[in-house]
UniProtKB/TrEMBL annotation:
One example GO MF annotation: DNA (cytosine-5-)-methyltransferase activity
Organism: Sporolactobacillus spathodeae
Family (UniProt): Belongs to the class I-like SAM-binding methyltransferase superfamily. C5-methyltransferase family.
Catalytic site: 198
Record's catalysed reaction(s): a 2'-deoxycytidine in DNA + S-adenosyl-L-methionine = a 5-methyl-2'-deoxycytidine in DNA + S-adenosyl-L-homocysteine + H(+)
Lineage of origin: Bacteria, Bacillati, Bacillota, Bacilli, Bacillales
One Pfam family of this chain: DNA_methylase
Protein name: Cytosine-specific methyltransferase
InterPro entries according to UniProt: C5-Methyltransferase (IPR050390), C5_DNA_meth_AS (IPR018117), C5_MeTfrase (IPR001525), C5_meth_CS (IPR031303), Cro/C1-type_HTH (IPR001387), Lambda_DNA-bd_dom_sf (IPR010982), SAM-dependent_MTases_sf (IPR029063)
């Protein structure tokens, strides 16, 4: 069974679609995917073909070439009127526009006090930044799911009473979390949270949905959402998710959340606005179970920005001593020439050219190279390694990277929160974490909403 390319070209002309690139855009796939669909060796999957038929308003019989017993194709010679289920207008689609779900409404929630006991299941818990912040807001953790052993040891060291499930979330979801020997909670869950990685989906069907997300870590998160049916879910991710894969990734997530029975909103929050001395923007997605949404008396609002924005001078005084990375002497000599708040542009030209390499000739490269921070500014976004050339974060006064405890302060972890593992692993745990104070603000906004029920 093959696709009749002649019929496709004829239908494209009728629809005034001049190129395969334009057709691919309308089908919400890339050009290579469309080319593969139209290639001689492609055997069409029904859902993909229906998608193509819907876009071009042509029937199954018009578009399909069937092979005879001798392997020779036979053609449907006449255009046949499509059946009603196939006669779909090109512009009557149920596509999701992610920007329709952006919520720009805020409320001061800093004085929010829980009116009930609220339960939390945390996924991709890492070193506990999100869990700790939600705890400070007033949520009680009943399970923290994490695969990395050192991160789990960090959680156990700091919160011996937490139920840390050190296991692959895919296996937990596949077998059903309520069937897991470590999961003893059988009540109604209040909040499911987590920051699953941003990954591309493999679109194979007529419309985006849960099946498109298989093979990504979003898939088990969405499975747990279906299994637990919490009142509210929190999902956080990198800002780039908004436009990842031309928006298809986020829009697919929204569709999956809606199909699970949730009203969905999102926005970009900058940690610097929530008592964190760091410019770190994250997308925060909130889902409210439809039955609650339908009977709510007041709607959910994101946390209002705090009035004062801290800078490094506010948080990096009297920091406990700890391990810290160092620069090679050759790099020390270069960064010694950079003033607080400066970067490679402050270097002598010949030194800058040598240090920057090809980046210098391509327009100067990023301002993150040879970057020394200032006491009077917040940190730039911390990474999982404190001394990467493209994202330098040199101490304001001393020519060295930030230490472990300084890293933790910048992420708004309390000094009492200890990290387990090698120095490199500790940097990774801290760099990957959600800033605690940002998590607290998000938690307060969720509690502020749930308090009405």
């Amino acid at each position: 069974m093959l696709i009749n390319k002649t019929a496709v070209k004829t239908a494209m002309k009728k629809k005034n679609i001049s190129t395969q690139t334009e057709l691919a855009e309308r089908l919400r796939m890339n050009k290579s995917q469309l080319s593969q669909m139209l290639s001689e060796g492609f055997s069409p999957i029904k859902t993909n073909v229906l998608k193509l038929m819907k876009e071009l308003d042509i029937s199954y019989k018009e578009i399909i070439i069937e092979e005879t017993g001798d392997g020779m194709p036979t053609f449907s010679n006449a255009f046949i009127v499509a059946e009603p289920t196939e006669q779909l207008d090109l512009f009557e689609t149920n596509t999701i526009n992610r920007f329709d779900y952006r919520l720009d409404e805020y409320e001061d929630v800093r004085n929010t006090v829980p009116q009930h006991t609220y339960t939390l299941v945390e996924t991709f818990a890492g070193a506990g930044g999100l869990s700790l912040g939600l705890e400070q807001a007033g949520l009680d953790s009943i399970a923290d799911i994490e695969l990395d052993h050192q991160a789990c040891e960090t959680l156990r060291h700091n919160r011996p009473t937490w139920n840390v499930m050190e296991e692959d979330i895919n296996e937990i979801a596949r077998l059903g979390i309520r069937n897991h020997k470590q999961f003893n909670f059988d009540g109604e869950l209040d909040v499911l949270s987590g920051g699953y990685p941003c990954q591309s989906f493999s679109y194979a069907g007529l419309r985006h949905g849960l099946d498109d997300t298989r093979g990504t870590l979003f898939y088990p998160y969405s499975q747990l959402l279906n299994q637990l049916q919490p009142k509210v879910f929190i999902a956080e991710n990198v800002k780039g998710l908004v436009n990842h894969d031309n928006g298809r990734t986020l829009e697919t997530m929204i569709q999956v959340f809606e199909e699970a029975g949730y009203h969905v909103v999102w926005n970009i929050l900058n940690a610097w606005n929530y008592s964190v001395a760091q410019k770190r923007e994250r997308i925060v997605i909130i889902g409210i179970r439809n039955d609650l949404y339908q009977k709510q008396k007041k709607s959910f609002k994101f946390p209002k920005s705090h009035v004062y924005k801290p800078v490094l001078n506010d948080i990096l005084r009297n920091v406990p001593k700890s391990l810290g990375a160092t620069y090679p002497q050759s790099k020390v000599k270069i960064l010694d020439l950079v003033p607080p708040g400066g970067c490679w542009v402050d270097l002598p030209d010949e030194i800058a050219k040598k240090y920057m390499g090809a980046s210098y000739n391509s327009g100067g490269g990023r301002r993150g190279m040879a970057r020394r921070l200032s006491w009077n500014e917040p940190s730039l976004t911390l990474t999982t390694s404190p001394a990467q050339k493209q994202t330098e974060r040199c101490h304001p006064e001393k020519t060295r990277p930030f230490t472990i405890r300084e890293y933790a302060r910048i992420q708004s972890f309390p000094d009492s929160w200890q990290f387990v593992g090698s120095m490199g692993n500790q940097y990774k745990q801290i760099g990957n974490a959600v800033p605690v104070n940002l998590a607290k603000a998000i938690g307060q906004s969720v509690i502020n909403y749930l308090n009405q029920f």
